[in-house]
Amino acid sequence: MQITTSPFVPAPATQTTAPSKISSDFDTFLKMLTAQIQNQDPMNPIDSADYAVQLATFSSVEQQTLTNQKLDALAGLMNVQGMAQLASWVGQEARSAAPVFMEGNAVTLSPTPQMGADRAVLVVQDANGNTVAREDIPQNRAPYSWTGTDITGTPLPKGTYTLSLESYNQGLRIGTSAVESYGRIHEIQTRPTGPRLILAGGVSLSADQITALRSPI
């Protein structure tokens, strides 16, 4: 179990180099403005209002650049803080609708049959989208222990599977829903879009995809 983090550059270092670049850009702007004044047509000088507009435009861009840099630094800080908060999740079991990694041990499912269903069928698909198992399960919302067998009852090969639940009423299918399951959190990784939790088998999900946590059973 581990927490994997990508290199993080502290905010102060970014903010130290940024102003010098902006200062350099401002010097270039002044040189260009001076050259523009020196080479203007004496008979048709540039309106002073145009200079004011140019200066205001540069100032606006400068402020926006500084704002963006501060936001980037804040986002990086929040990302690190998020990692610290999620660190305690490593080793816990997370419930989500992510694919299930099956390696022979029973997996706890949290099925949600449609209201009014008198039959519920668990549908199992492999990584290629092929249906490899269909089994009737209780048409209630109690936890269900899935042992990972195919249509003939033979244990499925080790791998990742997608589960769905078909609800029926008097022989008619009235709905299909995703099935949540519990998986052990093995590590946390930083990504540009935020922390990712890595479950057994390399299943990756974001923190907002988790609906419950529990200690390993």
UniProtKB/TrEMBL annotation:
InterPro entries: FlgD, FlgD/Vpr_Ig-like. Keywords: Bacterial flagellum biogenesis, Cell projection, Cilium, Flagellum. Residues 1-20 are annotated as: Disordered. The keyword Plastid does not apply. GO terms for biological process: bacterial-type flagellum organization. Residues 103-170 form the FlgD/Vpr Ig-like domain. Pfam families: FlgD (PF03963), FlgD_ig (PF13860). Required for flagellar hook formation. May act as a scaffolding protein. Belongs to the FlgD family. This is Basal-body rod modification protein FlgD. It comes from Pseudorhodobacter antarcticus.
